[in-house]
Amino acid sequence: MLFNLLLACLPAETDETKDSADDSGSTEELTDAVCTEATEVPCEDEIISDFSLHDDKTAKGDIENTAAGSGWVSIVDATAGGSSAASKNAWIYAKFTEDGLEKVEIDDETALQDMSWHIAARRYIIRLNSGASGPSCVGAAKIRDEFDAVDAGDASELEYQLEDFYTESCELKEDNSGMPGSPDTQLSTFWEYVGSCVGTTGQVWVLQLDSGELVKFTVDAYYANDGQEECNSSGSTSEEGAMYTWRWALL
Q1: Which position among 25, 28, 126, 171 has the lowest Cβ density within 10 Å, counted as fewest Cβ atoms?
Q2: Is 4 within the bounds of a domain?
Q3: Gyration radius of the chain over CA positions
Q4: SS3 for 176?
């Protein structure tokens, strides 16, 4: 089922809104949570099978963060042992924090009942913790502006979509890539085929977390080192795939 979440502008200070001050006198406004309790994930048996989810292992890959302006550049190792071994390895789970993107040490099947993660990846698939993918309510809205131009005001009337890659009869909805079994996740349009490799589209999203916080997000690279530039310009690269570069910032 597809849920549309409408986010109002961040509220002014009220009895329900609390401000916390640090030693320098700055304040941080707390937002209203969108959801606080886990919901049942539909088509659970199907996602376990279709996404090769595991209950006995966690991802070996790591996440590295570098501060960039008001946000972060996160290098996410979603290689999962390589394309031929990915189905035998776990997804990497993470959450957005003020201190960077934090890896959540959790196995795949437990993640279907856990609200602590926001985003997960394995190889070329990225999924959010909501709807058909997880028990939380992390939503996404595409935005046309360039990443640096996006601010909280752009999110005032966006409709946030939850993960909805199964039909009511639990048949997988595929994306437009032409790759069999490739799910139509909310972030699937971060890539497109360029020759024989995964080219990045530059699509920017605003993500709404379960806490109500907003994150602007884009995928700068799927390949390590200079591989993305090679892929986008020539249609091929020898660099390792699924070594993501994610650029994001809390709004």
Answers
A1: 25
A2: no
A3: 18
A4: coil
CA 225 vs CA 189, 202, 229, 245: distances in Å: 22, 17, 9, 10
How distant, in Å, are the alpha carbons of 9, 51, 121, 220 from that of 139? 16, 20, 16, 20
The C-alpha atoms of residue 197 and residue 87 are separated, in whole angstroms, by 20
In a domain, 9, yes or no: no
Which residue is associated with the tokens 């006198």? Answer: 25
- Kindly report the length of the chain: 251
Structural domains counted in the chain: 1
In whole angstroms, what is the distance from residue 229 CA to residue 206 CA?
24
And the tokens for 130? Answer: 């909501």
Which amino acid is present at 178? G
Does the pLDDT at position 14 exceed 70? no
Contact 240, 79 (CB under 8 A): yes
What is the pLDDT at residue 205? 98
Q: Has residue 19 been placed in a domain?
A: no
pLDDT of residue 31: 67
